[in-house]
Amino acid sequence: MSEYSSLLTELSENITNEDLEQLKSACKEDIPGDQSENITSSKEWFSYLEKDDKLAQDNLSYIEHIFEISRRPDLLTRVIEYRTTVLKISEDDEIDTKLTRIPSAKKYKDIIRQPSEEEIIKLAPPPKKV
Predict the structure, then answer these.
(1) Which residues form the DED domain (predicted)?
(2) How far apart are CA 94 and CA 102, in angstroms?
(3) Element holding 28 (H helix, E strand)
């Protein structure tokens, strides 16, 4: 079994039916309602995401995003561990590609970048109390 398959198996074992409903809800923009109803297990969910090109051995950004907005830091941490140890992709390397892969994140690209010195608003110190 490949490390990628092992990752998906481990993630599946930690996703309950209730979790699955929450995950499907988090990606309802990308999974049509009739398709969503047919997905009854986390393995089927991963399979659908792979067929829809949202998940691959070297493309985990989408599920990272879904786990993050679904408040599943345990699953997110496991995916990040896989990405950094198996794929050798750091968080810094990933940020630009992540923004191009997740449609809803594209609109935030300008917000995420660091502001230049000219863009930083300098605040005056608070007035002294008398």
Answers:
(1) 3-81
(2) 12
(3) none
